[in-house]
Amino acid sequence: MPDSQASLAGPTVESDVYLLLATLLRLPSREMAARYADGTLASGIAEHARAIWGDALGPREAGEAVGLFSSHERRGPSLLSDLRYEHTRLFEHPEFPAIQRYEGLFGFFAKNPGLRSYHGAPRRFVNPEAIDAERCYRRAGFDRSDELNEPADSVSTELEFMYRLVGAKRDALDAADSEALAFANACIDEFKGIHLKNWMLPFFEKVVQESRTDFYRATGLLGIAFLREQLR
Question: In the chain, what percentage of residues exceed pLDDT 90?
Answer without folding.
Answer: 76
